[in-house]
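Reading group handout, session on sequence-to-structure problems. Before we discuss, look at one worked example. The prompt was deliberately terse, the way you'd type it at a terminal:

> structure Sulfide:quinone oxidoreductase

The input record follows.
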Amino acid sequence: MELNTLTAGLSASPQVMPDDLQAIKDAGFRAIICNRPDGEGGDQPTFQEVAKAAKKLGIEAVYQPIVAGKVSDADATAFGASLQDLPGPVLAYCRTGTRSATLWSLSQAGNLSVADILAATKNAGYDMGGVVRRIANGGKTPTDTGDASYAVVIVGAGAGGIAVAASLKARKPDLDIAIIDPADVHYYQPGWTMVGGGIFDAQTTARTMGSLIPRGVHWIKAAVAAFEPDNNAVILDGCRVVKYDRLVVTPGIKLDWNKIDGLVETLGQNGVTSNYRYDLAPYTWDLVSSMASGRAIFTQPPMPIKCAGAPQKAMYLSGDAWFRRGVLKDIDIQFNNAGGVLFGVKDYVPALMEYVKKYDANLNFFHNLVAVDGPAKKAWFDVAKPDTPVERIAIDFDMMHVCPPQTAPDFIRVSPLADAAGWVDVDQYSLRHKTYDNIWSLGDVMNAPNAKTAAAARMQAPVVADNMVADMRGGAPVAQYNGYGSCPLTVERGKIVLAEFGYGGTLLPSFPKFLVDGTKATRAAWFLKEKMLPPIYWKGMLKGREWLAKPEKISVK
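And the output record:
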């Protein structure tokens, strides 16, 4: 029979027959809850028939019938109480299991996050979209009907969110826009590589969120719990509801530090650091500037990740610092990459390999970090070479720079907006959602096959703004995104390999080759990274001034 696991202590299933009880006992269940009223179907056994069979096998049985579509708050409370009282694990059933899953979702709303509940039910095969507001409201039926409503709602006030808000305001100054984000501080994350290399001060990469929200845009300082795209609604934590005519989804990416055993406990100490966090990037430089000998490991997890070049940027700048201090010969540099190539666009690899050789770095491909013991200075990697059994190895270290595994945010992965892998499902050219034509997405959270970089979001924001305005006027998309992404690879202090490319690895240089040859390390590219890109970000991209970001128009033949 079909047993759908919700938690270790509870599963849900379709109708249970008396003959199923032996298999249920053999599966380890000690109690059952019937959530289907007797007489609902012609071939349905009564609860007493099921309970009699259960009693013979020592399984407790509880009858809590629920009429389809009518789960009350009291029903959810009673179901939660039964779970507390019954010996586990428990199997709950109705006609399909949906009512049982709904009762569990509402009963746990005060204990688990909306995303955790939606993830558990989704994995078990049940869609809780119809009760998401109740889940967000602690399992209780909402009574507030005073929903806010805007022409455009933007989820996320990172690089993509503020840029698209500014671009929309530049096109339609009177447009009623709200941007939803709980954060107080906005970070220029591309600068953290430079912080870890001792070039930027961390404070220069942070500004207050309130100072950056475009004039005339409403800032809703809250976290999103869920989406109801069929109702044009965003559900906030606490069950406040924000309605929209058009929606932009750009909340960024989740850094899954907890996926590596022992990492969270040792970050920022014991020689374990990461430029992927504002508070840790200065520690990277502290370690590099004080290290004179030993082993330094730089890790890169499976793709996708944001700024795929950042793990090796940290390696190059560290190697350069050790080279300049004359201690490089005493430092063993290991670059442990879960992937199989140094960089995904082959045109840039020769220039990078020159620096790999200069710093005598060992490239260990198919090495994925899975655990770390900070006090013991030991890390474990799963080595998964093609056509070879996975082998777990331990490596000692004196310093380790970690790039964490990354996924779409939890509330995105469990939403109707996500594809099978959990990313917002868009057309890669128009950046419009494939199912909901009044929703667009940009930045790290969507599934277009481009590099996840701030430079990509800089190009995407005007495309989304142009296409949304065209839609408001009743027209088809007018601009298309070519997959542009940029990765300024800081190979040494004063030189950068400026990788610029689009879909399929096509090179998309922004400057003539005589000014910046992206396939070579140049000082001009370093000047761009150090002096030009920060003001382009703060004063251009976030202000709706689309410098170096003119949208590519769709050609009509």
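Points for discussion. First: The two ends are 57 Å apart (CA to CA). Second: The first helix runs from residue 21 to 26.
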